[in-house]
Design goal:
Chains: A alpha/beta (358), B alpha/beta (187), C mainly alpha (85)
Helix content of chain A: 25-40%
Number of strands of chain A: 14
Strand order of the largest sheet of chain B: 3-2-1-7-6-4-5
Number of domains of chain B: 1
Order of helices and strands of chain B: EEEHHEHHHEHEE
Shape of chain A: globular
CATH superfamily of chain A: Thiolase/Chalcone synthase
Strand order of the largest sheet of chain A: 5-4-6-8-1-9
Number of helices of chain B: 6
Distance between the termini of chain B: 5 Å
Helix content of chain B: 25-40%
Structural class of chain B: alpha/beta
CATH superfamily of chain B: Thiolase/Chalcone synthase
Number of strands of chain B: 7
CATH topology of chain B: Peroxisomal Thiolase, Chain A, domain 1
CATH topology of chain A: Peroxisomal Thiolase, Chain A, domain 1
Oligomer: heterotrimer
Chain lengths: 358, 187, 85
């Protein structure tokens, strides 16, 4: 028995399908822009936003305009992405054998700007319930809110839900939107760059933020089914500091070892490593240490934050889908924004896109 | 082998229960969480920097793990921390929102913002106890024992996890909270 | 020196140093590392906000903070020389 991918979608500033996003990615496009005072914030920022008009047009095509009349942007992109992926997968989402798993860090947090807001609506758990209800699904949806790794944790939850036969199919939706809350918060941590982010580069100054939703549908299948299958996943903790990564890349290193062990893959099987690569000083350094400690320094590394910014709860799903799509085409995408390697441990960052045989 | 509950802790603004027995009750004047912290002589100054969700999870986990003694702080990766609630980090979110609400007094607070993720409490517990295993925070539309049990079962599937620190951990304000946590071991 | 006492009081409040009084903080003791107060990177960021809010001082690069926040005394010297309010 295996777990395989049967449906997918990406809603982002670069398009409303995996195909549109992949084409944009391979041509080096990005909608990351500098804004001098976005939402009247008293500092410039460099972010990637989903344009409202294009989003409304897509909702209309999907016949969701009426349904979304009083929805927030977060609810709209999550529902739109889920709707497209479910359609593609062909599953009956009303079945009790299907589970919905949402990945989000901040959901509708922007609603807090209105003092009279309905607090019940702020939590992503409420959005997940709304989405499951929309598709007529009877099960209690699971929402993973585990910071930057949420999108990967959600896929690992799906994998286990299916391997244990708790369910037969899982719809995993990753989504987050930007708001003054999120941008000001990251700014207060001095984590933002007001220029294009530069993953793993010597002159990297911090991260860019971005909006996206991405959905993947997984299903239990026979061992000999074709297509992409999930082999293993692991979540490990640094146990170091609540906001700064471990100097030894502890959690990341342990997760890599665990996945290599349980998937029984070796270095020569791997086409590439899609890394977090936020472009903060500490993250990229920590990842280079973890990759080297895990003996993976000969594997090409690619980071996608230079196209999309850090899309928070969407990142893990978005980047998984684009990495799969690229490898299908025999390509490793370029790491946009990368110039000169600036981490202490050697890693093979893809400065240009190149072909892979794997 | 099957999962077995080793200890349970229930903590609300009114009382603290350990393994079903009431061991402390609220006193007038002081926050109950601080009261329990002092009464049990927990020496961990970082406690005072935490938001209410982390304080709640910290105290409940300290009490759950009390009986493990000195072995407790040996680094390990076979214990997962999987916590649940409905409202995520709502109290920290509202506190941070107040630091950015007034354009004339716009001073976003970094030490508040770091707590605007619900999973920070799993990190605080992992740091305190040197847990390198899995950690996760799951939001549910309602408190469902069935959904929580299913997620704990899944956590045991990674081949390395042999025990899980888990439970419901909700804190919507400084005075409205509920922890119902347990330590579960595969035995 | 009044400014030193004022800074200590504001620090205790901003950093939630619950169990401390201004008298517990030595003027010259290091604020970071294992000796002294043992503050961390988030505390530095919060101190930067404290200086901006109370004294109109902007510090763009947290690295600059290392010297300014070496001790309460170095902080007070910096505030006295650079304050705009």
């Amino acid at each position: 028995m295996i777990v395989r991918k049967i449906g997918e979608n990406i809603v982002s500033p670069l398009g409303f399908s995996v195909e549109e996003n992949f084409t944009a990615l391979m041509s080096g496009r990005s909608e990351l822009r500098r804004y001098e005072s976005l939402w009247n914030l008293p500092f410039p920022c460099f972010v990637s936003l989903i344009p409202g008009a294009a989003l409304e047009a897509e909702l209309s095509k999907e016949e969701l305009t009426g349904r979304c009349a009083s929805s927030t942007k977060f609810e709209k992109i999550a529902l739109l992405s889920a709707s497209k992926a479910i359609k593609q997968s062909g599953i009956d989402a009303r079945s009790g054998r299907v589970v919905f798993i949402l990945s989000s860090t901040k959901g509708n947090v922007e609603l807090l700007a209105d003092e009279k807001t309905d607090f019940d609506r702020v939590t992503p758990a409420n959005t997940a319930k709304m989405i499951a209800h929309h598709f007529g699904n009877p099960n209690l949806p699971v929402t993973v809110s585990n910071a930057c790794i949420s999108g990967l944790c959600a896929q690992i939850e799906a994998f286990r839900c299916l391997m244990s036969r708790q369910y037969d199919a899982a719809v995993v939706i990753g989504a987050d939107v930007l708001s003054p809350f999120i941008v000001a918060g990251f700014q207060s941590l001095k984590a933002l760059s007001d220029e294009q982010c530069r993953p793993f580069s010597a002159n990297r100054k911090g991260l860019n933020l971005g909006e996206a939703a991405a959905t993947v549908v997984y299903q239990v299948a026979d061992d000999n089914s074709d297509g992409w299958r999930m082999l293993a996943g692991a979540v490990r903790n640094d146990a170091n500091h609540i906001s700064g990564p471990s100097r030894t890349g502890e959690g990341s290193y342990r997760a890599l070892l665990s996945v290599l062990g349980s998937s029984k893959l070796t270095v020569s099987d791997l086409a590439c490593l899609n890394v977090h690569g936020t472009s903060t000083l500490y993250n990229d350094e920590m990842e280079s240490i973890a990759i080297n400690r895990a003996g993976l320094n000969a594997v090409p590394v690619n980071a996608m934050k230079g196209y999309y910014g850090h899309t928070l709860g969407a990142a893990g799903v978005l980047e998984t889908l684009l990495t799969m799509r690229a490898v299908e085409e025999g390509k490793i995408p370029a790491t946009r924004g990368f110039d000169e390697l600036g981490v202490t441990n050697p890693v093979l960052v893809s400065s240009e896109s190149f072909d892979t045989q794997k | 082998m099957e999962p077995k509950v080793i200890h349970r802790v229930k903590l609300t603004p009114r009382s603290l229960e350990v393994d079903g027995k009431r061991v402390a009750e609220a006193v007038a004047g002081e926050s109950f969480l601080t009261h329990v912290y002092r009464q049990r002589q927990m020496d961990y100054p970082k406690f005072f920097k935490m938001d209410v969700l982390c304080k709640l999870g910290f105290i409940a986990s300290e009490i759950l793990l009390e009986t493990e003694g000195a072995e407790r702080f040996v680094p390990r990766a076979d214990r997962a921390v999987i916590l649940f609630n409905r409202n995520s980090s709502l109290n920290a979110d509202r506190t941070f929102q107040r630091t950015i609400a007034d354009p004339e007094e716009f001073y976003p607070s970094p030490s508040v913002f770091v707590y605007t993720l619900p999973n920070i409490v799993t990190g605080e517990i992992a740091i305190r106890n040197k847990y390198h295993g899995e950690s996760n925070f799951i939001l549910l539309p309602e408190k469902s024992e069935e959904a929580m049990n299913q997620a704990v079962e899944r956590a045991f599937m990674d081949g390395e996890t042999t025990s899980v620190l888990t439970g419901w951990l909700e804190a919507v304000s400084e005075t409205e909270y509920e922890a119902e946590m347990k330590l579960i071991m595969m035995m | 020196m009044e400014l030193i006492e004022e800074l200590k009081t504001k620090m205790i409040e901003a950093l939630n140093l619950e169990e401390m009084t201004p008298a517990d903080i030595d003027d010259n003791a290091p604020l970071f590392g294992d000796e002294g107060l043992g503050l961390d990177s988030i505390d530095v960021l919060e101190l930067i906000v404290l200086l901006e809010r109370n004294y109109g001082i902007k510090i763009a690069d947290p690295k600059q903070g290392k010297e300014i926040f070496a001790s309460v005394r170095t902080m007070a010297d910096y505030v006295a020389a650079n304050r705009t309010k």
